[in-house]
UniProtKB/TrEMBL annotation:
SUPFAM superfamilies xref list: P-loop containing nucleoside triphosphate hydrolases
Claim: Repressor is one of the keywords in the record: no
Organism annotation: Streptomyces lavendulae subsp. lavendulae
Entry-linked InterPro entries: AAA+_ATPase, ABC_transporter-like_ATP-bd, ABC_transporter-like_CS, ABC_Transporter_VariousFunc, P-loop_NTPase
One annotated GO molecular function: ATP hydrolysis activity
Identification of the protein by name: ABC transporter ATP-binding protein YtrB
Organism taxonomic ancestry: Bacteria, Bacillati, Actinomycetota, Actinomycetes, Kitasatosporales
Superkingdom assignment: Bacteria
Keywords of this entry: ATP-binding, Nucleotide-binding
Length: 314
């Protein structure tokens, strides 16, 4: 039996906190030794290549799967503690809705199943997308269904919204609309969002916190504003067909060469001095480099390390 008594109000500042979290399917670890946290109120991206463990992490948070190791806390309480389930809403790619229900009946079901239901918010979301209340779900377009699924999720008034590539099947216009809707609803209610996505431009536009997974492990986690500026793109000429030795003082995440020229994304460990051209990478460039280099040393900003200066998230 797990301890459900030790969490207090201070811990609730962390929407998610994983310590040594792991999930094994037969002999293979889908998620291993994951330790990170996400402060409440952030729009966090969950990024990683196919098979990195993103859905597994969301399944552990939503209790669709049980951890094989470690623990996961949601607002300071174990994910399986009584009462935790009412604090989050989950939206996956498949968006299970009853096809024969009308939009209105779907919202009524949301109201009947959820004690804290916010009918006004749910209706505002469907109406702002011109989704007719009397239309049957089976007649809605993919974008309209996604909007209805968002209305169900936000109507629950969750403190934490967990999204597994919810916009993957939308066209660019619908994606932009739903993205704006998500940001404005989350800002209005102070909702924490953890959103898995493969679209780096979408992440750069929407997210202020990053959790990067590769091969089941956390490769990077923390405030985007802290993590991205720790990196520099270095362009120069190789020395004897290799990266200049002076760069070894830094953490080289990724190197690409073309003839005698190299471009390296490095995590600075001090001043960068040499006959090189230095540029500041954007979030997308940093994420791409980490996604292409799953073996790169992990990077967690202090906010993302459980137990580290708790006051830093305030
Ligand atoms: N129910 C399961 N049984 C066995 N293996 C599983 C199961 N679910 C996931 N896995 C394995 O765990 C690993 C992580 O899968 P997961 O779906 O979490 O990755 P993902 O990052 O969400 O990938 P994608 O971007 O493709 O959706 C994969 O190797 C996958 O095959």
């Amino acid at each position: 039996m797990r301890d459900t008594t030790t969490y207090g109000t201070a811990d609730a500042r962390w929407a998610l906190e994983a310590r040594g979290l792991g999930k094994r399917y037969r002999r293979r670890w889908a998620l291993k030794d994951c330790t990170f946290r996400v402060p409440a109120g952030r729009i966090a991206a969950l990024v990683g290549p196919n098979g990195a463990g993103k859905s597994t992490l969301l399944n552990l948070a939503t209790r669709l799967a049980e951890p094989s190791a470690g623990e996961l806390r949601i607002f300071g309480a174990p994910a399986d503690a009584p009462g935790t389930m009412g604090r989050w809403a989950y939206l996956g790619q498949d968006k299970p809705l009853f096809k024969r229900f009308t939009v209105e009946q779907t919202l009524r079901m949301g109201r009947e199943l959820n004690p804290g239901w916010d009918q006004r918010a749910a209706e505002r979301i469907v109406r702002s997308g011109q989704v007719p209340l009397d239309a049957r779900v089976e007649t809605l377009s993919g974008g309209q269904r996604t909007r209805l699924a968002f209305a169900l999720a936000f109507g629950k008034r969750p403190e934490l919204l967990l999204l597994d590539e919810p916009m993957a099947d939308l066209d660019p216009v619908a994606r932009d609309e739903i993205g704006s809707l998500l940001l404005s609803e989350a800002a209005e209610h102070g909702t924490t969002v953890l959103m898995s996505s493969h679209l780096l431009s979408e992440i750069e536009d929407m997210c202020d916190y990053l959790v990067v997974l590769a091969e089941g492990r956390v490769r990077m986690a923390g405030e985007a504003d802290e993590l991205v500026p720790m990196h520099t793109l270095v362009t120069g000429v190789t020395e004897e067909d290799a990266l200049p030795a002076a760069l070894n003082a830094h953490t080289v995440i990724e190197v690409r060469t073309s003839g005698r020229h190299f471009t390296a994304l490095v995590r600075r460990q001090g001043p960068l001095q040499g006959p090189w051209q230095l540029t500041e990478p954007g979030m997308e460039e940093v994420l791409l480099a980490y996604l292409r280099s799953p073996g790169a040393p992990a990077l967690l900003s202090p906010t993302a390390v459980p137990g580290h200066r708790e006051e830093s998230a305030a």
